[in-house]
Specification:
Layout lengths: L2 E2 H7 L6 H20 L2 E2 L8 E3 L5 E3 L6 E2 L19 H4 L7 H16 L9 H10 L10 H10 L10 H4 L3 H4 L4 H17 L1
Antiparallel strand pairs: 1-3, 2-5, 3-4
Helix pairs in contact: 2-4, 4-6
Length: 196
């Protein structure tokens, strides 16, 4: 793998096209669908844990916070993960399931657009307080499809939040870039890096 998504974000602040955002979200969703199908919750979806290659491959990494769900234990309530990307129900130690990963993916999309996750400048306790008690402002520059996608990820009631599998059929994901456009974006980014 070439680098993690955080490196790409830091070096392309507010310069990542929506089609590339959609491609990256789709690739992470594919990984989440597989994990969730096998009863696993990642619980630490963030840009640091998304690896990208120059060939346009996108891989999920760092499964140290992953939890296994079973018939006997179909929810968790442990507070674990990285504050800026945590879902409200996880922060509040409510029972939660795979939908916490969907919230976190919405934060990754936000981060791709804005250059950092919401509340990044606050200390961890303030960040968690804000996530639980305030609504997230979706960037005004988003297309209608991307806005709708992110609004779904940020539904406060996890029962109403879409699953990773259902998000794969969202218009924003269906209409996003293919790997060729992502590879072209990476190639241009690498050329800029070599000049600097």
């Amino acid at each position: 793998m070439k680098c993690n998504l955080t490196t790409l974000i830091k070096e392309n602040v507010r310069g990542i096209p929506e089609g590339v955002v959609g491609f990256l979200c789709r690739e992470v969703l594919k990984s989440l669908v597989w994990l969730h199908k096998h009863g696993r919750i990642h619980r630490d979806i963030k840009s640091d844990n998304v690896l990208i290659s120059v060939k346009g491959e996108v891989k999920l990494s760092d499964f140290g916070c992953t939890a296994q769900l079973t018939k006997e234990r179909n929810a968790r309530n442990t507070v674990i993960g990285t504050p800026c990307w945590m879902a409200p129900e996880l922060i509040m130690s409510n029972d939660y399931s795979t939908k916490v990963d969907v919230w976190s993916l919405g934060i990754v999309a936000y981060e791709l657009l804005e250059g950092s996750p919401p509340f990044k400048s606050m200390n961890p306790m303030e960040t968690m307080f804000q996530i639980v008690n305030s609504s997230l402002e979706i960037p005004k520059t988003c297309s209608e499809d991307l806005r709708n996608f992110m609004e779904g990820c940020f539904l406060r009631n996890p029962q109403n939040r879409p699953s990773a599998k259902s998000l794969l059929t969202h218009p924003f994901i269906i209409n996003c870039s293919e790997s060729e456009e992502f590879c072209e974006f990476l190639s241009q980014w690498n050329q800029k890096r070599q000049v600097l």
